[in-house]
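Q: For a teaching session next week I want to show students how multiple molecules come together into a single three-dimensional assembly. I've collected the sequence lines for a complex. Could you give me the predicted structure tokens for the whole thing so I can convert them for display?
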Amino acid sequence: MPQHVVELIGSVAACLTTFAFLPQVMKVWRTRSVRDISLITYATMTLGVFLWFVYGVGIGSFPVIAANAITFVLSLFILIMKIRHSR
Amino acid sequence: MPQHVVELIGSVAACLTTFAFLPQVMKVWRTRSVRDISLITYATMTLGVFLWFVYGVGIGSFPVIAANAITFVLSLFILIMKIRHSR
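A: Of course. Below is the structure for the complete assembly, covering every listed component.
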């Protein structure tokens, strides 16, 4: 595969996975319904992307820092809504 | 930060984000309830991790290939369950 195609695929992949949780955030915000959402999934994901963020700081990679900062905020929001709206 | 600490943090982060969807898979499998799950989130995530997988092949990185292959299967499973069990 040509190098520029590989880089393009990586960039599109990064955008998609970074913002993928945004529709879930909007759905949870709109419905306030979180029954089907897994608490452990979002607790694990939030901690995981936080550690990716720290890793990005450690290696001095701006793309890793930026992408995971965004995903951290989205994942944390879903986690907080899950905890708050679970009975 | 010492290099080995940075590498350890990156490895833990990779494990957490790779397997984070497993509890969501188990919850959806057990309950067959997917109302609160966002279709667009899992469609975007599934496509995104597939492209990360292709990127991993392109740069010849086994960790990127392996991690995203696992996440792809988990995310695709949730997506299929969402489509199948939505009314």
